[in-house]
Amino acid sequence: MPQAKIPVLRETRPKMKTSRKIIWILVLLFIVLLAVLFFRSSLSRITEINFKGSLFTSQEELLKQSGLHVGGQFFGASPEEVKKRLKEIKSIESVTVDKQFPGIVSINIKEYDTVAYEVGTDGNLIAILSNGTSVGVSSSGIAVEKPILTNWKPDDPYKAKLCKILSNIPGEWTADISEIIPDPTPSFPDRIRMYTRSQFEVLTSVSLLSEKISYLNQVLETEQPGLVSMFEADTYVAFKPEEEGGSVENDTTQ
């Protein structure tokens, strides 16, 4: 009698690929849910904005120019964009932006150095920066050792050159200069006349100032008040006391 063949049962294998897909989908959905919750929470928001180093621009103006605001997206605030926007302010030389999680943005500002002052038409003091920019200044921000520029036209090209030169001269060498006035001649269109706090009068030119300033300081330290001329040759003539008619006391040439 023939034996009946029993069919071989196939092994039941778990559908691993399908299970893994479901797990990955659930993980992704969980991550998306967490991201949505995070970005809608206060942890993703700017909670504090600090500006440091600004003398000529108010906190309100800096905040408006930066484009930042408390409650804005912390991770959406681009440091490079903030730097670019703030450097559009003419008094600002450089900016660094430091983001500290959670929510704190610290901005350090370096402004151009003040090299001189002017008195505005309204009588208020104006600071002249090393890049030639003029900005209003409060009495608390005045550096008394800086000279005052008098009778300069706003568009005078020698004014901008003078500011650049002053920024490269050590502050202790210009601390005694109280006033600088344009005094051009056909031979020296950039000639200037300077007065010092120690009662000297100085004639030189914008282009020669950085070269001659060391000689001026030697005279200021060793001689009595007088007239100093610094051109091709350097001369010093002491002032005679007024009661003697203003004639010169001596004349030296370097």
From TrEMBL:
InterPro entries in alphabetical order: DivIB, FtsQ_DivIB, POTRA, POTRA_FtsQ_type
Record's bilayer topology term: Single-pass type II membrane protein
Gene3D superfamilies associated with the record: 3.40.50.10960, membrane protein fhac (3.10.20.310)
The keyword Cell cycle belongs to this UniProt entry's keyword annotation: yes
Pfam family, one: POTRA_1
POTRA domain location: 44-112
An individual GO BP term: cell division
PROSITE patterns: POTRA (PS51779)
Location(s) in or outside the cell: Cell membrane; Membrane
Domain of life: Bacteria
UniProt keyword terms in alphabetical order: Cell cycle, Cell division, Cell membrane, Membrane, Transmembrane, Transmembrane helix
Transmembrane portions of the chain: 21-39
Chief location: membrane
Function of the molecule: Cell division protein that may be involved in stabilizing or promoting the assembly of the division complex.
Similarity remark: Belongs to the FtsQ/DivIB family. DivIB subfamily.
Protein known as: Cell division protein DivIB
Annotated organism of origin: Paenibacillus terreus
Lineage, uppermost ranks: Bacteria, Bacillati, Bacillota, Bacilli, Bacillales
